[in-house]
Amino acid sequence: MIGKETMQIPADTRLAEELAEDDVVEMANLTTAQTGVPGTIFISTAMGGHGPRVKYFLQPGRSQPSFSVAVADTPSVVASSLPLRIVRQASPQVVEWVSRNKDALLDFWYHGDAWTHPEVNDFIQKLQPV
Question: Which of 95, 92, 118, 116 shows the shortest CA–CA distance to 105?
Answer without folding.
Answer: 95
